[in-house]
Write a structure and sequence with these properties.
about 120 residues, about 50% strand, four-stranded antiparallel sheet, mainly beta, 11 strands, single chain
């Protein structure tokens, strides 16, 4: 099992940046993916970025955030960070990190372990 805790959300103006952190603990292996998801009001939750935390490969992004969101990891601190640049009002939502064992990190299904989420609000 993997435990995850997000932090770093907040309220910003359009065009500004935020950095979200996901601290994970528990059992992790070379096939463990950590992904970032968001739940926008009125829409289904979507994956935005993912990475293998114990092997090479990634990070992977969906098209709508490519070039604006940047995922990095610090294995010494068991942390995966998502930097959100050039934020838009449509980026508003609850952001979650999640983990899964196996599968591809660019496929945002099959994630079994979830954090509690952190709110991002972008005003125009």
């Amino acid at each position: 099992q993997v435990q995850l805790v997000e932090s770093g959300g907040g309220s910003v103006q359009a065009g500004e940046s935020l950095t979200l952190s996901c601290e994970y603990s528990g059992s992790t292996y070379s096939n463990t993916c950590v992904g970032w998801f968001r739940q926008v009001p009125g829409k289904e939750r979507e994956g935005v970025a993912g990475v293998y935390i114990k092997s090479s490969g990634g990070p992977y992004y969906i098209d709508s955030v490519e070039g604006r969101f940047f995922l990095s990891q610090d294995n010494a601190k068991n942390t995966v960070t998502l930097r959100l640049d050039s934020l838009k009002p449509e980026d508003t939502g609850m952001y979650y990190c999640a983990a899964k064992y196996g599968g591809s990190c660019w496929v945002f299904t099959g994630y079994d372990y979830w954090g509690q989420g952190t709110q991002v609000t972008v005003s125009s």
